Amino acid sequence: MSENDREHDIVLYGATGFVGKLTAQYLASAGTGARIALAGRSTDRLLAVRDSLGEQAKDWPLIVADASQPSTINAMAASTRVVVTTVGPYLRYGLPLVAACAAAGTDYADLTGETLFVRRAIDLHHKQAVDTGARIVHACGFDSIPSDMTVFALYRQAERDGTGQLGDTNFVARSFAGGVSGGTIASMTELAREASLDPEARRLLNDPYTLTPDRGAEPELGPQPDARWRRGREIAPELDGYWVGAFAMALPNTRVVRRSNALLEYAYGRRFEYAELMSTGRSIGAPVLAAVATAGNAATMQLGSRFLNRVPRAALERVLPKPGTGPNEQTRERGHYTVETYTTTSTGARYVARMSQKGDPGYKATAVLLGESGLALALDRDKLSDLRGILTPAAAMGDALLARFPGADVSLDVSRLN
């Protein structure tokens, strides 16, 4: 079936989950005219979601599909141009849908921050997706669009200015208000459990180029810590007086950004180095907070990798926030984030990319980013890259997302600093 014969532009799979509902709400409010269907395991729950979306969504089709029933997943993938999925943990549930989209030549976007899941998708399905023309785009939420797209925007600006390639580049989370979703916690727990059982998984997680298309082609730049404990002025004079420490999602985000560089044939540069940090402020306690954040970030995966396999999964699931749960509307609305990514190019030009959104990063903001990714894949095909296979947001749809952000109240601006 050609893409012009597809019944739907977008199928939202997992529409009855917490972030799935928020994404459905966003797509309904966007009023794009896209042909959208809602998918999940329960017709009754899908009906309830559709009824809550108002007049715009009253005719949206409903699709019953379940990862445990491959025929339903295959049929869903074949019916649409794009599948947008919020169903995780992806290591546990995600690969059958990736396989179905790769086989059907269907574009795909998800919210994963699970590095091992992405690596398995590459190993198992990249070649087929290239052959069928599918774009399988991982990490289309707060993880990892702000990381990926601020670096892409820096690259585009340096390219326009003719100031050379990107060198030392640092993402700094300047302000952040919001909770961590149950789905994110479940995903990170699944990742740590996998690492606890498999030495090869631990090796992959420790490799800064885990997601590269060709490990042997990567430049030898020496140690590349994903997150560092540093004075702000070591990154940029504009951060003088501030301290920075590890950003919690540095591990998956940095690998996504490095894969983007490789997929784009090292357009960012062969000497591109990248780290992610979090500002802890400039108070007397700021350096201590930065050190604790960095040490805690390093210890979390190590301890999880060592001990998590000794704790029964059922016991963990009783005490951890559950996937599909989240904060109330007032809390979601109060959330926000601002990130700044600093770079120095090969000619010495300095830039900063600032990106911000209102709304809880893991919920409201993520729903906007995922929704816009699905719309870009479905409706902006003339602005997408020619790449196919297992891709990143920047490599698949960088220019399309840059064009879409202003209309979605996503602020992303690049400034030259010298």
TrEMBL record:
GO biological process: glycolipid biosynthetic process
Top-rank taxon, per record: Bacteria
Alphabetized InterPro entries for the sequence: NAD(P)-bd_dom_sf (IPR036291), Saccharopine_DH-like_oxidrdct (IPR051276), Sacchrp_dh_NADP-bd (IPR005097)
Annotated Gene Ontology cellular component terms: plasma membrane
Chain ranges of the Saccharopine dehydrogenase NADP binding domain: 10-134
Pfam family, one: Sacchrp_dh_NADP
Family: Belongs to the saccharopine dehydrogenase family. Enoyl reductase subfamily.
PANTHER family linked to this entry: SACCHAROPINE DEHYDROGENASE-LIKE OXIDOREDUCTASE
Name of the molecule in the record: Uncharacterized conserved protein
